[in-house]
Design goal:
2 copies of one chain form a homodimer. Chain A is an alpha+beta fold and about 180 residues long. The first copy, chain A, has a single domain (about 5-105, about 145-180), classed as Electron Transport, Fmn-binding Protein, Chain A (Pnp Oxidase, Chain A, Roll), CATH 2.30.110.10. Helices cover about 20% and strands about 45% of the residues of chain A. The first copy, chain A, has 4 helices and 12 strands; from the N terminus they run αββββαββααββββββ. Chain A has helices at about 10-20, 70-75, 105-110, 115, and strands at about 35-40, 40-45, 50-55, 60-65, 80-85, 90-105, 120-125, 130, 135-140, 145-160, 165-170, 175-180. In chain A, strands 1, 2, 3, 4, 5, 6, 10, 11 and 12 form a 9-stranded antiparallel sheet that branches. Chain A has a two-stranded antiparallel ribbon with strand order 7-9. Chain A is elongated. The two termini of chain A are about 25 Å apart. The relative contact order of chain A is 0.19.
């Protein structure tokens, strides 16, 4: 079997397959990407959970609390980056994105298990100082449930092969790939 | 043995111990943090290798090619974030930093094994389009060797415990910790 990372088109196929796996397999490296945004005092980066992927629309979806800093940041500046380092595959995936936000989506909210709904809502709001770790009252609240849809405009890959480091870039709207110097 | 993440001071100690481990142990989660910067078109995030840690100076060090995009970005805007997700420890470490750059450091260059020096220099420069993955000529060049020193101004941790999610923030100059809502 030929190495998929030796060709541009199969490299891009790998990206979409691995992103799709991240929405289903808790152990996939694509399950927990790092979301980077631009904050008031510089860049911010945090782990998020990949909730959905649409290869046709070129979007990925994550969920958060409406009162979190990333919602404020993306409201002000919708440019975002999603980053994955898959150590087992020796593969880095970098997605350049623009975010749109949807608040309190009733249909999506209904699909979230009751226990997981506790991640949205609660008092005080995320990031607020509390006297003790348990001084936080989880109170699931659909109004605080925000869907972040990331519209991907560019994909960059770096595969550390045994022979070579292969770096490639794919950009909307053609998504034609190009090799770039590592 | 009590859980170190149940107390603020031992949580901070864990961060510094784990960062130090990342400079020595290739398998430590802290070996390959994600560096986020602010680019012309939004945030950028990529995997880097942790080269040195100084808990007294509150700095960490990474190495790169002078012609890389991150050098241009940090020259323009020195604000940076370093992000680590340690899946085994259920621990997220977020470092807010300011970067200073040093070019062509002779002493550090001399300590880099010859084979590893190939990561700095080479033609064409990183990110430039090439016709094939092997259309890149590695040519070690000390002039292209850049040290990025990240001066940490804030540390945020999130530990996903079996009972509670514990989130804490520590900031210069006192580094006194505070619990914050997860």
């Amino acid at each position: 079997m030929s190495d998929p990372f030796h060709q541009l088109d199969s490299t891009l196929t790998q990206v979409w397959q691995r992103l799709a796996r991240g929405t289903k397999d808790r152990r996939a490296a694509t399950r927990n990407p790092t979301l980077a945004t631009v904050g008031n005092m510089g860049p911010q980066a945090r782990t998020v959970v990949l909730r959905a992927v649409d290869p046709n629309a070129k979007t990925v979806e994550i969920h958060t609390d409406r009162r979190s800093l990333k919602v404020a940041e993306l409201t002000k500046n919708p440019n975002a980056a999603l980053h994955i380092w898959d150590a087992k595959a020796n593969l880095q995936i970098r997605l350049r994105c623009t975010a749109t936000l949807t608040h309190a989506d009733a249909e999506k909210w209904a699909q979230i298990p009751e226990n997981a709904q506790r991640a949205y809502g609660g008092s005080p709001a995320p990031g607020h100082e509390i006297p003790r770790p348990d001084a936080h009252d989880p109170a699931p609240n659909r109004d605080d449930f925000t869907t972040i849809t990331l519209h991907i405009t560019e994909i960059e890959t770096l595969h550390l092969g045994s022979d070579l480091h292969r770096r490639a870039r794919f950009a909307a709207p053609s998504w034609q790939g190009h090799w770039i110097a590592p």
